[in-house]
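Much of what follows relies on a compact textual record of a protein's fold. Think of the row as the fold of the chain written in a discrete alphabet. An example makes this concrete, so a full record is given next.


***
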Amino acid sequence: MHHVTIYHNPACGTSRNTLAMIRASGVEPEIIEYLKNPPGRERLVELIAAMGVGARDILRDKGTPYQELGLGDMSLPEDALIDAMVQHPILMNRPIVVTAKGTKLCRPSEDVLLILESSDIGTFVKENGEVVKVSTS
């Protein structure tokens, strides 16, 4: 069985759909509810590096203290953005999934199929009724 970790927010539909797709692939992932158990600074830096993106790429503005903290200031250094996410985990976009094949912010949720060992989940219906058809050819 392949190890999969999801940094999950159960209140987020995209995160719930991603989790359901992982399970549909036959894997029961390690679920980290990052709002209850946020990654420390070191782990967050590792995740960002593993995704090959900048901190701003996983920064969430909607429903967060983004504006109040002035995080829209494009001159802010990476360290300031990372510090803000460590202090306010709600600023982390989700879900972030870690597998042997890679680490990815799975937005849209079907992006998780790119990093699962088996993406053979057949036809998947998201919570909103959208159908995701996975071709194994």
